[in-house]
Amino acid sequence: MCSTLGHLLVQIGKAHRNKGNQMLAAYxxxxxxxxxxxxxxxxxxxxLSDLTTNMEVTPVTVTRMADRLEKNGFLVKEKCxxxxxxxxxxxxxxxxxxxxxxxxxxxxxxxxxxxEGLSTEEKIILKRLLMQVLENLKK
Amino acid sequence: MCSTLGHLLVQIGKAHRNKGNQMLAAYxxxxxxxxxxxxxxxxxxxxLSDLTTNMEVTPVTVTRMADRLEKNGFLVKEKCxxxxxxxxxxxxxxxxxxxxxxxxxxxxxxxxxxxEGLSTEEKIILKRLLMQVLENLKK
DNA sequence: ATATAATAATTAGCCGGCTAAATAAAAGGA
DNA sequence: TCCTTTTATTTAGCCGGCTAATTATTATAT
Lengths: 139, 139
Prior knowledge:
three-stranded antiparallel β-sheet, Arc Repressor Mutant, subunit A, mainly alpha, 9% strand, 3 strands, DNA-binding, homodimer
């Protein structure tokens, strides 16, 4: 098991998402949505196209995430007044509260848990190596 | 961007899956299905419950993957004769051929690409650190 | 001014991943 | 033997991710 780097990364991806889901369940959110909310918290009224860029996902994914988050009362979508093609999103009170709590608590907690037992140096090395792997995969 | 380890892992996960999808497109397969086929290649007539264990996914996921792979002609499902609850899967000729080619070519190629530019020592360190991270996430 | 190209979103449809709940069959215990 | 628990699978439904194709609107070049 876990003999290859690929397999290892897949397992980590799953475990990471599962932990995230567990932690976000209290807010009725799923892993991935917290980044969306955080972006809107930092850039209120942000366009979907900019979210596409910032989150590095396709426009389709952003559209559907926005729809679901709106349906569940976390944010509001509205047409941009100066560009009729664009859609801007802004947080509701519920969304604002969730975003603020999550960013500080959940994410940091998960981040801490992952690197437990690693020295400061090892953390730096791990990040550096992973950034290299990401570069290689994007080629 | 990519400031946290979590974000980095998410990005790598996406990039890894996308590369896999690209490579497997020639076989009309998607990332994840190659592991399924490989398992059935090594253990012909394997039960779905064992695939659940080996692949470390839920029974639901295995059932649906098996259905899709069967629908697309890669394998066959049949009830176990000694245990009427269980379902055994075996590869068709098409599935066998795909599994053999993919395991050797695609997976190794992706594996190579990921660690390009890393020294032998760095590869070992990376694996060790990632295994620690996986352990931490499973707690 | 008009035709062409680029940009922003969307719909439909596919994939792997999950939980909850239901079904059916086998295994164990009183 | 009968009842209970465990095991194997499935159905329904939700999530993020993707591609392909479509619609609208803005920008650009002729």
